[in-house]
Model the fold of this input.
Amino acid sequence: MITEHTLASRRDDALALENQINRIVVGQRTAVRNLLIAVFARGHVLLEGQVGVGKTTLLRTVAQGLGGRYQRIEGTIDLMPADLIYYTYLNQDGRPCVDPGPLLKQGEQLSVFFFNEINRARPQVHSLLLRVMAERAVGAFNREYRMPHMLVFADRNRVEREETFELPAAARDRFLMEINIAAPGDDAVLDELMFDPRFHDVDALIAGMAESGIGYQNLNALGEAIQQRVQTSPALRKYALDLAKASGDPKAYGISLSDVEMERLLHAGVSPRGMSYLIRAAKVRAWLEQRDSLWPEDIQAVFAPTMSHRLFLNPIYDYRHDELLPALVGEILNHIAAP
Done:
């Protein structure tokens, strides 16, 4: 059983890990905090961002700090579900061999699985990945392989749209958060990334990072202890419920956007799973802020990354997706009164 003292000690370790990551992946403090929230909430993550902004470095750093194993696979048009489980080759004697693929290679020590450019892979591959995300297990070679500590992180190619397969709504809803990792805009940060030699060798940079005292094998129990420890008041429960309901029917709550027929804006709103994920993430933020009760600020801080990818616009407005979704999320937070 995890005691209050253990929770406090692990929080110190988590904050120390956050500081370490921010020294390696500079200029991404909001993304780093949201990623840590997802790790302790035990939820999978979609990453958004252009090429070369540090997504892979960030995930490798997290895996290094937690002490678990890291695996990565590239999405391609010819990738098949079996490629995640095994690969075949001829050995030096010319005999066919079968070795474990990226999902099975690290066994139960796998803590971070990164699927790069997931929308380049076919729906059959998405289907297998969804099962692994839900069950943290996969069947192969007449047995079941379990990955109890694994979190899946995936990003999408937003530049080249040829031969891509966008994730359907059901798939996107399986992810706890969608975290945007933008290129740093601060000149001092860009100057450091360009001219400080320590950022030029990513392998050495990550290898010099100390492992935290958290332990990837303890995260499932720790995550549940956080959920039990952080309490919510009746007023907070109503506030969260109003936010969720306004996300599904914004017009009913007096929310309007310019040049939009609000009754036709949304094709689908937030699912019950999404509402649950919102509270899980908010409780982890409260824990990181050294509180054992949920505040409105906790819900507001995680609302956009947990809700935005669960709001599906009708086709007539989908071409304005990048404009309308942030505006809708902001209006929901502005219109629903916090206790």
Notes: The chain has a mean pLDDT of 90.
